[in-house]
Amino acid sequence: MFKNYLLVAYRNLVRHKSFSLINISGLALGITACLLIGLFVHDELQFDKNVPDGERIYRVYTQQTKTDAPETFAPVAPMFATTLKQEFPEVEQTMRILMQNSVNLLEVGDKKIYVGDDLMVDSTFFDVFQLPFKYGSAAKALNAPTSIVLTEEVARNFFGDENPIGKEIKVDKSTFNVTGVLENSLDKFHLKVNFIVPLAAAELPAERMKKWGWQQFFTYVKLRPGADAKQTQAKLRAYLNDKVQPTLPPDEKLTSVPVLQPLHQIHLYSSNFKYDSSVKGNITYVKALSLIAVFILLIAGFNFVNLATAKSMQRAKEVGVRKTIGASQQQLMLQFLSETVLLTLASVVLAAVFTSLLLPALNAFTGKTMEFDLLANPALLGVLVLLTVVVGLVAGFYPALVLSSFKPVKVLKSAVVTDGIFGRVQWLRHGLIVVQFALSVFLIICALVVFGQVSYLHNKELGFNREQIMFFPMRGQNMNQQHEAFKNELKQVPGVVSASIGYGFPGDQVAGDGIIVPANGERKDHPVTQLMVDYDYIKTLGLQLVAGRDFSKELTTDKDHAFIINETAVKELGFGTPQQALGKTVEWEVWNDRNPDSLKVGKVIGVVKDFHYKSLYDKLEPAVLQIFPDAYWKVAVKMRADNLGSSVDGVKQVWAKFSPESPIEYKFLDDNFEEMYRAEDKLNTLLWVFTGIAIFVGCLGLFGLATYAAERRKKEIGIRKVLGADVSTIVGLLSKEFLKLVLVAAIIAFPVAWYVMHEWLQDFAYRIDMPLWAFVVAAVAAGTVAFLTVSYQAVRAATANPIKNLRAE
Amino acid sequence: MIKIENLEKIYRTDEVQTKALNNVSLAVNEGEFVAIMGPSGCGKSTLLNIIGLLDEPDGGSFRFGSTEVAHVSERQRSKLRKEHIGFVFQSFNLIDELTVAENVELPLIYLGMGAAERKQRVEQVLEKMKIMHRRNHFPQQLSGGQQQRVAVARAVVNSPKLILADEPTGNLDSRNGNEVMELLTELNEAGTTIVMVTHSEHDARYAHRVIRLLDGEVVLENVQQPFTV
């Protein structure tokens, strides 16, 4: 009997090829999207799950309490770890990682490679994170200040497959000894690691390590088994209030509270953390994607049901015959259920193929290394089997019920089934179409708005000239000591317009620090961005002065007693107008370990027009420019557009002269800005993909419904044609109904899309206005696609021979 | 074999009640060949459907053999149908996705017969109906006469006691129509009871007896030919 079912199912599939193809591929597409999203979500949820004792490990971060919108900072002051270890018996171990963002030159013999993502850590690192070692052991790996632990990949780059324990490797010219090699299993670890060196190597002054205000360390605690993190957190807060706060001078009081964040939440629940260098996911995206996956599967399933039911009317006769011959309703249910399970199986197999084909693209897109290997992963195979059975049964149940309940007396007499259960669930069918098209319209609007904002981000006037600026960090003592000579030679290179050395170039890191404004006997400390510049900074970046003058080499006081501020700083520091700001006195506590108390006192000599040195996510902050050669770490070289290549070569030659031992590592300044918006670029791409899927899936649903409607109204159409209706009238008749649904969908989608996109745009300090045309375009696009889909069936129905349909009655 | 007394069937729409069958009483004996005639809408197909257990009467009694079946469950009716009744329709009603042999085999599958026996039975009946050579064809590849022969083959493959034919020649030309009528006559002569609805006086002449219906009532029962059980 089962064989007979399969035979009929197979022949039905083959006979209605295009229909089968649409139905199978529609479901396959839905399942593919689900599988890909599922893989991504699963991967995101796996972060840090392999760390032993992970449930006892917490990261300490702080939440700003003073400001209206509380800000969260990932790094904390060094004293947190010290205090937790000393004063809290439930703490088994603490560990700090120095916040830095450096790229280091690693050397073994002649081999020189720049490697980023190094961790400078307390020697307790491997007590907290018991990562697996390939060579060496955790116990002594970080004991000496010259110890270095490499990842397998870095080790292979320098030492091939041999065991490098005990070998020397130079990091920025300092020699370290390899004490361990980690196994290559860190792809789902929240820290990016290429190599690990002890904090001792940084030789931080002991005095600084006793600070409560120097937020520079990612700090982890491992609690003893059974300890309650909530209690520890409460105790820590109380301790800070009672024991620490009273000992701090007024301007160093703590303005934030510490929070213990479980290790397993770091990856997904830190998206809004500031200064966080961990590999970050976003739980909102994970949740949204999961929801979308379920939604896609539901919609694909509903469409499957829709199409199958519509098609089932053509099999009414078969049902009648089978029933007449003696088939019971249960037998027929079983037959049609096995058919849908078979169809689903075909879809799942197809989806598995699609998934395998698309996964490399997804991996490239997400930077992950996900695998879809059914043989190696029986659980995945289980999921697919389960998916087949569940989707097959659920999607097949309704058509099977409808079909098997046909009365043979009725269906055998007439070729057209007109009444019964179909009519009664019309609202459900229409509801589904509305939902699908609402989703399509919503996504089209989102895609257009995001596209608009992304274009804006990439093209907005930033207040400086970011084109053709070559940008690189300085390397080596020689270059640092002779920076003036180096810069002069750079300027001699043909095609170079100007060159600037400093710290705080747009798109790169900038330093935040306080600036003191003395007024009325008080000294008020304002948080500002400090741009450490030279005499060519303003010229190189093409900044505009709105008042006063640029720094000048001729005026010797400019080096130690002059500041230039931006327009925002004029307002924030309370100077009134740019003109009024000129000549005002400001003070700065110099970054100087040799003489911690030195104060730089100077006057405002100029005001520059505001320019965006950070991404457009961030509101413009008050910025202070000053000449500060101690921070001459980065170089920006402005070039002419023509012959860029030879100018770059010229710069390289100058570099080689000053720092022959280190290769140059450069970018162009506008690349920095492109990188800032990579997430938005990805969102943009992702939205277009989803929009495409949504439209396709929506059309499938509509197609099914149109097929059904055309089938149902065969007789009506026949009569109308006999009475003289032409094709266009009938196409209009059939299409109108569906266009109404799209209209309803648009009306539902508009406010939702407006709200969601409005919220999204709020994240950007600088953003486009909500583009109203996007709403019009979305509605028109959805309507057009819907019309084309429906009109295919409508034209078919309208051009059919009316006599045939009437005689069938 | 069939005893019907005071049978009623009423079709209701929102506002109108139509009596399709009114107080119909009749009996069909085993081995009889009965034709039911009457103008369109007189209720003959309704009667046939009730006899075939495809439809339920609204009143009266219907005994199939010794069993009262007027209001038995769908499961019971389905069982009786597949064991005792074969159907032949005007529009053949073959399943397009199945071959000739598979169409004929279908009733046997629902009876739960083993594959080997099914094969044998199907071949026997196809031989008998002279369409063995087309056993692997699909219905659309056959002429109308051939399709109806397949339908007859399907109706008799499980050796039912009763064959119900609803205008079996209605879609056929006269030559093919005659062939089908000859087939039914042969089956009847071999012992199968046949009840046939027809418009055709010519076809009705093959029957032993004609029951005429008008407006849902039996107006005339005449025995055309004597027959013996």
Automatic annotation (TrEMBL), chain A:
GO terms for molecular function: transmembrane transporter activity. Its main location: membrane. It is a multi-pass membrane protein. Pfam families: FtsX, MacB_PCD. Keywords: Cell membrane, Membrane, Transmembrane, Transmembrane helix. Residues 291-406, 689-802 form the ABC3 transporter permease C-terminal domain. It is found in: Cell membrane. Residues 20-238 form the MacB-like periplasmic core domain. GO terms for cellular component: plasma membrane. InterPro entries: ABC3_permease_C, MacB_PCD, Macrolide_Exporter_MacB. The chain crosses the membrane at residues 21-41, 288-308, 340-359, 379-403, 432-456, 686-710, 738-757, 772-795. This is Macrolide ABC transporter permease. It comes from Solirubrum puertoriconensis.
UniProtKB/TrEMBL annotation, chain B:
It holds the Pfam family ABC_tran. InterPro entries: AAA+_ATPase, ABC_transporter-like_ATP-bd, ABC_transporter-like_CS, ABC_transpr_LolD-like, MacB-like_ATP-bd, P-loop_NTPase. One of its GO terms (cellular component) is plasma membrane. CDD domains: ABC_MJ0796_LolCDE_FtsE (cd03255). Residues 2-229 form the ABC transporter domain. Keywords: ATP-binding, Nucleotide-binding, Transport. The keyword Transport applies. One of its GO terms (molecular function) is transmembrane transporter activity. The keyword Nucleotide-binding applies. Belongs to the ABC transporter superfamily. Macrolide exporter (TC 3.A.1.122) family. This is Phosphonate ABC transporter ATP-binding protein. The lineage of its organism: Bacteria, Pseudomonadati, Bacteroidota, Cytophagia, Cytophagales.
